[in-house]
Design a protein that fits this description.
Layout lengths: L4 H4 L1 H20 L4 E5 L5 H9 L3 E3 L1 E8 L38 E2 L7 E2 L13 E2 L3 H9 L3 E3 L14 H9 L3 E2 L14 H12 L5
Parallel strand pairs: 4-7, 5-6, 7-8
Antiparallel strand pairs: 1-3, 2-3
Length: about 210
């Protein structure tokens, strides 16, 4: 179980804004006219975050770009955003849920015998099963916990499009994914090839 408060709270937004500000400064120093970010089409909150920082959608909903205030040719049409320092304090912030259950998240591992998935080797076919998209509502109903940690083996696929029903059902249940368990790979291995394999595996899940 893990806390989901930081990811959704002011501290997380502050950190992300700081990263954007640092990227903007680096790009400006190098006389780079535009900064482009990629965001999954189903991530409405991320879209809103970037738009508040001055990004604008270009050509495709997954892509945005931003203009810089220096002498450089640019095809960007969006003016530079307001100074981030007016919206975010560049000092340590504390944001932690007050309610006990808001500090918890439930992983899908204890429910491995029930979850139907072609990659779930722990599924017990002798008992009724559930699809992973039913998991968020189940945890809210049974435990009153609105944060979950699904495992990659419990998804039907790593294709972001196949996760859309899961995301929609999560939102409908008022649930949030605070972590994603990527099982079976060794990011910590002393073998460089094994680490590379793990990283490549992890990249497949970024948009989930």
């Amino acid at each position: 179980m893990r806390s989901g408060g930081e990811r959704r709270g002011t501290l997380a937004r502050h950190r992300k804004a700081c990263l954007v500000a640092a990227a903007e400064k680096t790009a400006s120093d190098k006389k780079i006219a535009c900064l482009r970010v990629r965001s999954n089409i189903i991530r409405d909150r991320a879209h809103g975050f970037y738009e508040r920082l001055g990004f604008a959608n270009v050509k495709h909903p997954k892509f945005s770009r931003r203009r810089y205030n220096h002498k450089s040719e640019s095809t960007c049409s969006q003016p530079i955003a307001p100074d981030l320092s007016s919206s975010y304090r560049y000092s340590p912030l504390r944001s932690f849920p007050v309610k006990t259950r808001d500090r918890l998240a439930v992983t899908s591992w204890p429910f491995r015998t029930l979850i139907d998935s072609p990659t779930n080797r722990q599924r017990d076919a002798t008992v009724p099963g559930i699809d992973l998209k039913e998991f968020p509502a189940l945890i809210v109903e049974k435990f009153g916990v609105h944060n979950i940690n699904p495992l990659s083996d419990h998804f039907h696929s790593s294709d972001p499009l196949t996760s859309i029903p899961f995301v929609r059902r999560s939102r409908k249940a008022g649930s949030h994914v605070v972590d994603l368990g990527l099982s079976g790979k060794q990011f910590y291995s002393s073998d460089a090839a094994a680490r590379t394999e793990a990283v490549e595996f992890g990249r497949k899940w970024i948009d989930i």
